[in-house]
Amino acid sequence: MIKRALGTVLAAAALVFSAASSEAADYRIDAGHSFVQFKISHIGVSWMIGTFENVSGSFSFDPDAGPEGQSISVEIDTASVDTNHAERDKHLRSADFLNVDEFPTATFVSTGYEGDGESGTLTGDLTLHGVTKEIAIAVKKVGEGKDPWGGYRAGFEGTVSLTRSEFSMGYNLGPASESMELLLFIEGIRR
Amino acid sequence: MWRSGAGHYGIVASGLHWAIALGIVGLVGLGAWMVGLTYYDPWYNDSLALHKAIGIVVLALALAKFSWKLADRYPGYGPEVKPYERAGATAMHWLLSALMVLLPVTGYLISTSEGAGIDMFGLFDVPAFFNVTAETRDLAIDIHYYVAYGGIGLVGLHVIAALKHHFVDRGSTLRRMLIPRSRA
User: Fold this and answer.
1) Per the domain annotation, does B127 fall within a domain?
2) Which long-range contacts (C-beta less than 8 Å, at least 24 apart) are formed by A79-86?
3) In this complex, how many residue pairs, one in chain A and one in chain B, have their CB atoms less than 8 Å apart?
4) Chain A closest CA to B73's CA: distance in Å?
5) Are A172 and B134 an interchain contact pair (Cβ–Cβ within 8 Å)?
6) Given an 8 Å threshold on Cβ–Cβ distance, is A171 in contact with B41?
């Protein structure tokens, strides 16, 4: 009788604990250590790198929970685009490209994950320039662990190739520059 | 011959008038065309370089025109130009004079706002004399845009008035500008 009661308590405790641990798998994106960059060919001779400075959002990373335990939601301030050249940034913010007045925010919300705790493919909806499209991002864990200030962090990198015209940003930059690589470096602090 | 006199223009005044007219109308056309070019167009960079250099030439011509006007004699209006038309014409001439300065100066400020000078057809550079802020630059862009397209409207009215004096009033207003030193 006592044993059974104890068993129930333990089971309940385990349930509470697992609930607590899945809650502990929620991370807030650390904007200062997260980078959303893009790499696009410059007339086929070199690369042009751009960064979106303002990135926010959250993710769940719980390797034990299987594909259902992994998800992410990211918001990007499109006006924060920076390519090391003020004139170009202004052009990128204009209606020729990002049209930031009309579409100030780009978002990515994951819908599924295939892979393990180290690497995999994250699928989800990217909304950019008012167009929502499903994309598949190849992701890889960079590392996780305690930081020196009492928190717990995890970091990931991901890449995906985007065709500009699919997001209605087909402005002619030459045949070498029709698609671009999105480079994601996302670090989160566990809540 | 060089200078104007009562009822006629000299070669310098007439020449400057037509050179500036051609320059400004050409630059508005060039400007309207070049802003539609995409990055990969062969003219994407050269059209702008040409626009800047010609703009500096127009500014120099405008300053020469104003200086010359101080030294030149005033031909006066032809007898066919009615008093109220004279008032309108004088106002128009002031507006067009303002435009001749405002367009190249704002263009210059826009072009040199990042510290680079203006390459004059590969011959020499006009340096950046002022250090304007991004806000001033954006204001200069707006002024340049509205004065350019608004200016074409003014030029249109100016042309219509000249044609009216020629074909309707059958006066010498247009002829004396076209052919310097032709008497009224």
Assistant:
1) yes
2) A79/A104, A80/A52, A80/A53, A80/A54, A81/A50, A81/A51, A81/A52, A81/A53, A82/A50, A82/A51, A82/A52, A82/A53, A83/A48, A83/A49, A83/A50, A83/A51, A84/A49, A86/B114, A86/B134
3) 15
4) 47
5) no
6) no
For residue B138, tell me if it sits in a domain: yes
B26 found inside a domain: yes
- The rounded mean pLDDT for chain B is 95
| Phi, psi dihedral angles at A179 (to 5 degrees) | -120, 165
Query: B114 contacts in A (CB within 8 Å)?
Result: 86-87
Residues in B touching A172 (Cβ below 8 Å): 38-41
pTM for this entry: 0.79
pLDDT of the residue at B184: 44
Kindly determine whether residue B114 and residue A174, on different chains, have CB atoms separated by under 8 Å. Answer: no
pLDDT band of residue A4 (cuts 50, 70, 90) is low
Contact check, Cβ <8 Å, B39/A171: yes
Report the domain count for chain B. 1
Question: Residue B157: is its pLDDT beyond 60?
Answer: yes
- Contact (CB<8Å) A86/B134: yes
CA B155 to chain CA centroid, nearest Å: 9
Give domain status of residue A40, yes or no: yes
Q: Which of A86, A87, A172 is closest, CB to CB, to B40? A: A172
Cβ-defined contact of A172 to B39 (cutoff 8 Å):
yes
B100 belongs to a structural domain: yes
Decide if B125 touches A, using CB distance below 8 A. no
CATH of the domain at B17: 1.20.950.20
Structural domain harbouring A44: 27-190
| Pairing mode, strands A119-128 and A131-146 | antiparallel
What CATH number does residue A145 fall under? 2.40.128.110
Chain A contact present for B142, CB below 8 A: no
Mean local confidence (pLDDT), A113-138:
97
With CA atoms as reference, report the closest residue to B184 among B12, B11, B9, B3. Answer: B9
Per cent of chain B over pLDDT 70 is: 98
Per the domain annotation, does A13 fall within a domain? no
User: Which of A17-21, A171-175, A178-182, B53-57 is least confident?
Assistant: A17-21
The pLDDT score that the predictor gives to residue A30 is 97
pLDDT for A34-44, tens place per residue? 999 999 999 99
Count of structural domains, chain A: 1
ipTM value for the complex: 0.71
